[in-house]
Write a sequence for this structure.
């Protein structure tokens, strides 16, 4: 098990933006319930759209009901149970470790051409706002290029363990490393380039999205290799990360939902692809191995 103590830090408060308890931008909207969220999310995926943006657009037309979430309750002020309390400890320490690593490694691996700029992880309960749209527990963790923040509702980890059968501390850390990989893409100019190409060629939008996501998996593997080198991992931890990568492949998610596997509709890559690129990052411990676009560079 990835030990909390092996991180060597308690987590920098400056790396965390805690919006739980309704004081940090909780949504206060009526309308879509869980069933509606799932339906809209599935439709968005089938259309190749960002579910967060679609859900946000729908919610933007709903009447506000101040101070409550959709269930009529005030947002949770903190961890809901012991599992979330432990998850929060891990998230805080992993966030700091991941950013400490890239602050040193990115300039080294780019010959000083790129510097890592720290950002924040937003902890929210139930729902919050982002420039990318409404964020909810059903959205899952995500990175928003609009404010360069990573968002997570800790209840996602229970879903990762229960529904996707990918439990464990290192599986949780892998998810964070993947999202901070998207921040690297923003800093390196990869993400803006991909979005521009998607606007120019809608037919290639999904394929470009898959390559962007697989590169973030590879970046997560680079950090994981450093964690292994620093003796932070136990036997079985890498398998946890690989299981997490495989569990959220587009093909597996489609199968779990009883839908036909349609590679042309993939937005994140198959389970095999996600595992492959995570392994590539681990094997090399260098972002140079993360050329998912096949152009000899990190950007398309």
């Amino acid at each position: 098990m990835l030990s909390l103590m092996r991180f060597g830090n308690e987590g920098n408060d400056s790396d965390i933006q805690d919006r739980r308890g309704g004081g940090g931008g909780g949504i206060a909207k009526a309308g879509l319930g869980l069933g509606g969220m799932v339906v809209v999310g599935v439709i968005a995926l089938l259309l190749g759209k960002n579910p967060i943006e679609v859900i946000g657009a729908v919610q933007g037309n709903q009447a506000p009901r101040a101070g409550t979430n959709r269930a009529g309750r005030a947002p949770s002020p903190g961890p809901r149970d012991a599992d979330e309390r432990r998850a929060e400890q891990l998230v805080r320490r992993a966030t700091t470790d991941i950013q400490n690593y890239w602050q040193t490694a990115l300039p080294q691996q780019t010959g000083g051409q790129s510097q890592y700029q720290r950002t924040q992880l937003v902890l929210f309960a139930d729902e919050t706002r982002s420039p990318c749209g409404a964020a909810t527990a059903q959205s899952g963790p995500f990175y928003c290029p609009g404010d360069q923040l990573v968002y997570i509702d800790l209840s996602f980890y229970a879903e990762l363990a229960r529904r996707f059968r990918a439990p464990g501390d290192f599986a949780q850390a892998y998810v964070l490393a993947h999202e901070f990989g998207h921040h690297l893409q923003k800093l390196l100019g990869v993400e803006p380039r991909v979005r521009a190409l998607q606007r120019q060629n809608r037919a290639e939008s999904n394929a470009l999205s898959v390559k962007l996501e697989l590169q973030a998996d590879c970046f997560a593997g680079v950090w994981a290799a450093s964690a292994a080198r620093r003796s932070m991992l136990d036997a079985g931890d890498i398998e946890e990360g690989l299981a997490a990568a495989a569990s959220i492949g587009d093909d597996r998610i489609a199968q779990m939902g009883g839908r036909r596997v349609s590679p042309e509709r993939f937005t994140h890559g198959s389970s095999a692809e996600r595992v492959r690129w995570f392994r590539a990052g681990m094997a090399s411990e260098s972002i140079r191995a993360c050329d998912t676009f096949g152009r000899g560079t990190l950007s398309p």
Summary: Confidence is low (pLDDT under 50) at residues 23-48, 54-73. The longest strand covers residues 127-130.
